[in-house]
Amino acid sequence: MKKYFMSLLAALMILSLAACGDSNSPSSVPNESQTSGSKTPNAEGTRDITDSAGRQVTIPDTVKSIVCVNVGALRYTCYMKAQDLVVGVEDGEQKATLARLYNYVNFDEFSKLPVIGTNGEHYPETIIQANPDVIIMTASSNDDADALQQKTNIPVVVVPGSDTTMDNGAYKTIQIMGEVYGKEDRANELIAYMDSVKAELDSRTANISEADKPTVYVGGVSYKGAHGFEGTEANYGPLAIIHARNLADETGQTGAFNIDPEKVLAWDPDYIFVDFNGMDLIKEDYAKNPDYYSSLAAVKEGRVYSQISFRSSAANLETALADAYYAAAVIYPEQFKDIDPVEKAGEIFETFLGTNPYNDLKEAGYEFRAVTIGE
């Protein structure tokens, strides 16, 4: 009997040791987070969003730091009043410029930040050192966003950005940023303001018959650099949203392009607007060919006006909207007799930028005014 109990005890001890050493035992199998340290979509403190490229991206519940890559991401971040989250900038933001007002009003802070890339080139190692919670990237291929995310192990959220006035891309960018930054109230505020601008401009201009609209030409339009009088644009944003009769729209072209100056002479537009970025080239051409310009009725009769350049590394929405109100006040004086374009510009700048740099623009020579070509 004693021998039986000793054998039973020995067998139980062997089974116990085998269980402790069993590699398939639940207690001995590390979970995924223990082996890799990686986040899962349902990890505590994270949430999933869908970006404009249709990618599902896992980001922190509270985003406390970001970097912005590609054209327009930082601009719209500033519109969202989220510039305090930025921990690195592209090299183009290291010089203050009135051509991009979001940069001009935030330059003191941006100039202190590390450079994390150029326009179109990213520096993964520097981004890792800046250690943002999220990278915001304007529209690119999924491969670009996925590649940067893999190189940095930092979530990349793609937004569409915009190179015109209030298109769907502008709205979608604001909506996604509101979700990422936890600033839905700010996103709703901006969207409501944009809708109010659309409604006001429509109510004043949409029902004007084509026969009653004066013809308009815009010269000196910037695209991929400065252009002279021949540089123009079909569907030019500030004119499109006030339903102006932009003669470039009648060419069948799309976007910005160079037109034959003789075509403009044949049109002989009622009003001419010139982009300040092209003014030096226009003056040079005037010195060589003054007879051409003096043949245009708008030039002879003083109906040439300014447009503050709104395109620098894509469209600056606040400047484009200010340009639209000024153009509307010129083209439709009766419909806009109660609107002061300078005051309206101040309102727009305050809404998008939190401050009004119009006087700085004016001191630098960029203001809403009649223009004498050649002077």
Distance between the termini: 121 Å
Count the DSSP helices: 16
Structural class assignment: alpha/beta
Beta content comes to 5-15%
Query: What name goes with the CATH superfamily of the largest domain?
Result: Nitrogenase molybdenum iron protein domain
Order of strands in the sheet with most strands: 11-9-13-14
User: What Rg do the Cα atoms give?
Assistant: 29 Å
Task: Provide the domain count.
Answer: 2
Instruction: Write down the overall mean pLDDT.
Output: 89
CATH topology annotation of the largest domain? Rossmann fold
Q: What is the element string, with H for helices and E for strands?
A: HHEEEHEHEEHEHEHHEEHEEHEHHHEHHH
| Helix content percent band | 40-55%
How many β-strand runs? 14
Can you tell me the CATH class of the largest domain? Alpha Beta
Biggest sheet features: 4 strands, parallel
Low-confidence stretches: 1-41
Shape, please?
elongated
CATH architecture of the largest domain: 3-Layer(aba) Sandwich
